[in-house]
Batch of 4 targets.
Target 1
Amino acid sequence: MRYLTAGESHGPRLTAIIEGVPAGLPLTAEDINADLTRRQGGYGRGSRMKIETDRVEITAGVRHGLTTGAPITLNVTNKDHQKWLDIMAVEDIEEKLKSKRRIKHPRPGHADLVGGMKYRFSDLRNSLERSSARETTMRVAVGAVAKRILAELDIDIANHIVVFGGKEIDVPDGLTVADIRERAAQSEVSIVNQEREEEIKTYIDQIKRDGDTIGGVVETVVGGVPAGLGSYVQWDKKLDAKLAQAVVSINAFKGVEFGVGFQAGYLKGSQVMDEILWNQETGYTRRTNNLGGFEGGMTNGQPLVIRGVMKPIPTLYKPLMSVDIDTHEPYKATVERSDPTALPAAGVVMESVVATVLATEILDKFSSDNLEELKAAVASHRDYVKNF
């Protein structure tokens, strides 16, 4: 399975084309719209979420509610584009209109300046429009399709926030993936500890009044993943490495860890390695899951535990200093629409890209021209590794 996305933040629409989805997968627009709505939710979101209500249109690859095996095309219309017809026009326009909303004061932490350097733009809006987090709309749409594949294989996925603007969120022991998904869904800040809800909201409100932004750490957990996905034979075959690349590719994400992650650097080997167990009912398991479901770049049958750190959103309503690219004089950075935080939405994006990588890996390993063939192949593999 592979996909491409296209579209700009204020362009007419966002588009994705997915190739390699098995035939016979039940898929409707509502399956995708549910996650698009989740991406636009969460406490602390700004005015853009009130302007755009993302709804997908499936224009290829699905017939009578089932995928056909042909490429799937997904489109999301940008309603706000009507206010940007001249600014985002495809055709050439008058010079005086080109200067309207031109960006020449790059924002620290954004792609504005370096994108202009790389592609030789005199108007940094060209960098802004594609590098905007609006691009993640289609990655969530693709992820929703991937999650439909995983669901058919009894693979469950959820995300929640474990650090919110420097505030660590205590997570009760023994929560299942379903528990995490249910609790996070009931929280406007996507946390599983409801006792911290009002504290986090009050903090977000204060950050907004200060004209500042906050980041945090998102944890994505996946249950039901069969052992043996990925490989140790080459560096680019390791599945945890593929997941790390996908997570860090999300706008504003700066790092990723698995299981105890960077904490392993402070522990002894006897405190980190997961002892191997076996019984006739469940097959191989581990006493702990400190490695987050991975050994040697491969899944080991334990739940996947992946964390990504998101930096604070770079666009500030009290902007930092920058430089005018025409005069090279100091100038305050351009202010575009922004949020004090987008962590809950970022969690949905992270969940989506993780699901996409896993679905891609599964379709690569198992026979998957159609869904029934795929389900049979995965079931046979699970039976084999259980009795290995």
Target 2
Amino acid sequence: MLEHHELVIVGSGPAGLTAAVYTARANLEPVMVEGLAAGGQLMLTTEVENYPGFIEGIMGPDLMMRFREQALRFGTRCITADADSVDFSARPFRIRVSDLELTADAVIISTGATARMLGLANESRLLGHGVSTCATCDGFFFRDHDIAVIGGGDSAIEEAIFLTKFARKVTIIHRRDELRASKIMQDRALANAKIDFRWNSEVIDAFGEGKLSSIRLRDTVAGEESDLAVTGMFVAIGHDPATALFAGQLDLDPDGYIVTAPDSTRTSVEGVFACGDVQDRTYRQAVTAAGSGCMAAIDAERYLEATKHVPAHS
């Protein structure tokens, strides 16, 4: 089957769904290929207290359901499937979703990113119950707790320093005997009285009934195992943007994020726009993703309006 649309949105989450709300209200009748894991990382989040407008907080999946219902209300059509392939080499652009081929005059990409996890047996069960991948999102819940931060790069050290605002103690757990973080970040962490280090250590298990109570460490040199009592574990070993579909089609940075023009959501292909965590390696918040979704919608709407008035070649 072949269908043509003015605009197709690939991906959902706060960015894609905000783009859908804006473009649907602009009468562009967007089609959203929302993915089988529709809703993005907030679907794995328990309580969200930092999204404006929800004084008492809201559960992540409930927030995403509200986004989705709003997009549907204005006429967005959602396809709950993953895009199998895209072709941005010619216009109209092509997006294949199983036996359906969509063509589009403009495309907004909002496929997001996923936090790298440790792969522990109990990790997914305790995610949102003491295990987190975002200090900015969840640090507030850990006031006066003992916390572990896993990682040795700038983001891990930044998260550890941020968490000292709330925690009683923060233990940075790193596989090697020196950090990969920049010198200035290392100096700040080493000078912080609330931060301890467990060098040459890796987490091999996490324990807790209903919520995290301890983690098990293995010494990477001696092989000895020990338990550390913590009620919070922040995994800060990086993110993977969901861009495998776009390799060779769009310019990506060395870590795989889509490159967008400064102060814009425009990608290296005119008429293709990107928003949210798939192109944002810095902020990674629901509210900033939603903001960039709004930007992509406006950029796409202006692009479509401008190309409508381009005179045909004689």
Target 3
Amino acid sequence: MAIKDRMSGNEAVSYAIRQINPDVMPAFPITPSTEIPQLVSAYIANGEMDTEFIPVESEHSSMSAAIGAEAAGARSLTATSSAGLALMWEELLLAASNRMPVVLALVNRTLSGPININCDHSDGMGARDTGWIQIYAENNQEAYDNFIQAYPIAEHMDVHLPVMICQDGFITSHAVENIELLEDKTVKSFVGEYEPKEYLLNPGKPIAVGPYSASGYVMEAKKNQEIAMENAKDVILSVAKRFGKISGRSYGLFEEYRTADADYIMVLIGSAAGTAKQAADDLREKGIKAGILKVRVFRPFPAKELAEALKNCKMAAIMDRCESYNGNGGPLGCETDAALFRHKIAIETVNYIYGLGGRDFTVDDVYAVFQEMEDAVLHGKKVEQYQYIGLRK
């Protein structure tokens, strides 16, 4: 039975952690994720869970401790944001390459400089090629739901990779919304117990974790890691299907909103999708066939599926809340264009950068993007590629 409540995104993720009751949580505070370890440690102090909480001296240490605990056979997690994720850089790659199903609650915040504590996706996108599965939330409900699905994905024998559950800093992490929670016993049954087949503290079956690998073996290890990432697509969908049965909420690799007959589609990630959906509804009332495609799973990137979803529109706007500094576009823009080209889908696209450092992204901004697409398709007006939205002149 659903439990109706009101929670911030950080509260929702912390509540999910309490329900799962993992074995070990090392953590170091950093805005805007600080509330997650704070709330979890309060649950532990109040006797509501028996997770071993480890206060550490840095985010590098928190991921190191999570990897160590996971290698020893314990279900582990941590939480961080921004520079904290950057400080974990070496350990992120170790967690993935050593096939540790650690879960990380990432509250997205811009990376310096200049110093800023507000939302963009530069932290998560900066770690996009570290070998972690990445799942992004639009709202507090999705942050809660995604976290509950994380361990069944990470620990699946065809995957065994770490998972980042991402939500937008302050926009969802601190804003309070209505939410439907699952009962504790339902979550516990869905997630199950962690029973690793190989771990350091398994008596009588010694193994090595993270040994030196000679050149003759590294490529095979990397290929197996890539196969696991490919396998993750089907596992993510399978877990989402199971989750739908207990929650009534359905999830896929991405969400399509009014795209079936759309002439123009906006592709984006995270909380801005809510703004875009409202604008699309408004534009539909004016006769403009606008649609929204919200990417939920960025790693593994759903290239084939996304190309198929866009093939019938006349033009797509691809929105990045992150700068790649490659002189050619943002990460979502580049990967979407590559997916379309590889699968021979010949539609026009334009890449926009928006919302850096917490810059507002409004329904008027969405209207303007769709107007540019319509002008390009109907009147042949050239649209500037790789433009910033809301940039002060």
Target 4
Amino acid sequence: MQALLKFSRGVDWLNSLVGRCLIWLILASTVISGINAIVRKVLHTSSNAYLEVQWYLFAASFLLAAGYTLLQGEHVKVDVIASRLSKRTQIWIDIFGFVFFLTPMALAILWFGTPFVIQAIQTGEMSGNAGGLVRWPVYLMIPLGFGLLLLQGMSELIKRIAFLKGLIDDPTAKKGEKTAEQDLAEALRGLAGAKDKSGQGA
């Protein structure tokens, strides 16, 4: 199990690194978008290449960050029922989801998506728009993104099994961060305190 936990830590490190780097793609996309808008308004000209590179950068940031988002526990969850269950039950639900949903989905996309990328590289497929870009770089984001997501899913699965075995602390707990319920409770206490003070002042 220790070897698997070491693998899990390596995957977490990789996706953390990717997540920190991807913010620069978002910045680059924003800058290019701004420059394109200025050129279009001032010089009355534009290029499909500028538009497509924005799309490429957005696709890269969205797809490559999927693993990092899972690491941070920020994927959308419907916790109306699960949040009322015990922590061990919640962990078992996560394990079921990783094994029967995330892993098959990611493997299927890798299986069908990788040949698609290879074909685009071999044929040198270009955008159908005038002045457009070569297509394979953006297609490559599909297997890369789902590969990172699959690795992170394996890491999360390992951590949850280790937690059930009592080897690590709760992997779903966010250290140093307050839950939405805690934030709401503090906000309500703050409002109650403000009303009390205003009442005393009156």
